[in-house]
């Protein structure tokens, strides 16, 4: 068995989770809970694929996929920022809406195929034995996801805007009192989340498979939402969570192929069990302060 | 953008609605209903049934009107089936095993409506069953796989441990053994019919464990594509998936429900419909092997000969003796072959498969 | 310029009622344009979605059957959500309730039992409560976030059901297909109101709604929930342990979801199979919020959601609209209804100023 290839598979399997979760993390740090990741991902996957086929260009496909994610997120933003509607309810509704519209758009492209975006090998680094192939010969999105993680971490902790975003998320009443543009910051965060989810969707339809079909997202958006919680809203831990989940998902399939005689349902539940167990251990070790941003999920209204 | 055409349609449609409500009815067409487990956009099982429905509309033109409901949950199927019956559909096809009890319940209430349930085994005076002998195609695939494999290990990506999948795995193995007795088989259960990313990962897992030819009993083209990307081989599932993997697809096991749907509808139109149990395969072209490609001529010739032999009933994939994993001979309840009932309810692995069947 | 929202002081019941109706009208107006593009009549769509569901007795019965599990689960969830605890895993508790309740029905199959269904329900509720207890105890003991644990437990529950139905609980005479025996009459919930579809689960739902109304408005426990949610510090001053509250509400919520699962299995499906829920546990989250966590609101929103779901199906049958369109419409409708609801709750003011 080729361990390099297994490691390689784990990295690609984890990337869509990481991409979508990064966007959701920023959205949540601004105090908005958007449960519609699955819907935004589906939109990204469908529109990105449709555009790539229509214009015969992957770049346009990626761009359109991200825009589609943002546009879907904008619908959500209108409801929760403009009308202060319930975020949990709107997120679930957005999932349904996104899956439906994505299906409508994608239907004309069912059965079409586009050659997957190929990996690029980084010279020299990809020749390192054992880890070289697994870490340095990926498609560009894998590197983007890692760079984006670093950027998001830096943005949140080191920039003025990041600080503003976090204070808006912690307590929008005092943020408002400080004169911060609460709604604008949140709008930006929601749109960023949409773009990331769209990108994750594009990853599924243009890199992972090269086609569109209904339900291509298969609940991956929900996993992304959970990973944000798992990471206790810290970008670096997101990588850990995404890779643990990705690894468990891939390795359970290997365990099956290795013919250990364990019921497949039991093995299929391994990623979920592992995630819960790791979360419990982390929460236990870190104590109880792993709560989310203070204003998470609360509508922004002027209290008077 | 609202165009003039759309507005015209709007007005026209409103007029139509009024006409309909005032009791002007169109000429009597036979209304045929379909209940699909998946969305028709899955490019797999339900897509293929819908292709059959389209063929029916094309063939019988203005004699029939067809309706379908897609994405019906097995947990809540009784209402949509009954709604079809209530709205004047006289022939209703339900395409998944899990619709069995719901179909029977509704059929009891509507004795004048004919029901057709795919892949089930319970019938009634107005409920017929139909299924395809997919295992026949698996036998051919097994032979090809064994010939094409360099490592001597072939793979099977299955959805759920149901008899249909198990029979497919066994037929694949028996076919492979018939040309290469020492062949090894690895099985991975995806626990889903449809999840392209997971299916691709499962295929990768098989390839990473030295498998070099896979077949799949899940719906998406993703595993086949993975084979293409890795320079290995695979087989298309449900539809011809050549465009997804021009270099990797050896052949595809294509479901074709068109003939059956047309034939059964004609019987209703002629008033000759009876409740039957149909289980057809290569003979009636309910399953079709797409052109054999990417293989040497001798392998192709072997595959074609096997296909002809199965279609003419000269070759039975489960011809006796069939040995189970322990090497014990399985009781032979058919004539020189396992009986249909044994194949339909198969829950053992044949000799040579080293995995344990999930029970 | 910026937008400012502040809570409205007095909201009349008329406004509360008018908002969703206005939202429905708006959603249908948007849908009408799209439907016209598909070459279908918007008028007919309205007929299929609304008039069709409310005008004949068969459709009304189906509406009640579909709303029953939604009401039961959403009421349970309202206990959690009131105290700001996020049980998103009702689907899993539903599945476990259905599985263990169904197990009783299967275990007694072929025996001389005259009355099994009450036990089916009881065991289903207990099993659901136990499954709801897991995320609660993980939260209070280890501080593990309940959103994650409860949602992950959904997948585990579904796989467990899948395993049981394909293995130990499958019908021995069922040709090895993944399904249990069909339950005997003693294990099936009785039908009510002379219907052949509406089952005892509806009566349970009504009872649960009534009890919840009393608890929420009249009892110390209801006060405790509110205060734990709104002001956790004040709650602990008042001597309410937030840990105990967490465990109690998760168990209530799990029990009701489990009850819904058992009643669906023994009332509607009549056997165990790999799929026993078309996502009721998730739809119920929307129902709970749409109903503003109030028992009566939940009943109404469950009926509306059931109507939209069935309407989508009927639109496929009678108008031949694709599933995707009806799904998108359902999402849009919910978004608009939720927004309209907020419109009633808050005053909108455009303020001149830089911030916003």
From TrEMBL, chain A:
This is ABC transporter permease. It is a multi-pass membrane protein. It holds the Pfam family BPD_transp_2. InterPro entries: ABC_transp_permease. It is found in: Cell membrane. The chain crosses the membrane at residues 6-25, 32-53, 59-81, 88-106, 140-157, 187-209, 221-245, 266-285. The keyword Transmembrane applies. Keywords: Cell membrane, Membrane, Transmembrane, Transmembrane helix. CDD domains: TM_PBP1_transp_TpRbsC_like (cd06580).
TrEMBL record, chain C:
Its main location: membrane. Pfam families: BPD_transp_2. InterPro entries: ABC_transp_permease. The keyword Iron does not apply. The keyword Transmembrane helix applies. It is found in: Cell membrane. The chain crosses the membrane at residues 21-38, 58-81, 93-110, 116-138, 147-165, 198-216, 293-312, 327-346. CDD domains: TM_PBP1_transp_TpRbsC_like (cd06580). It is a multi-pass membrane protein. Keywords: Cell membrane, Membrane, Transmembrane, Transmembrane helix. This is ABC transporter permease. It comes from Hohaiivirga grylli.
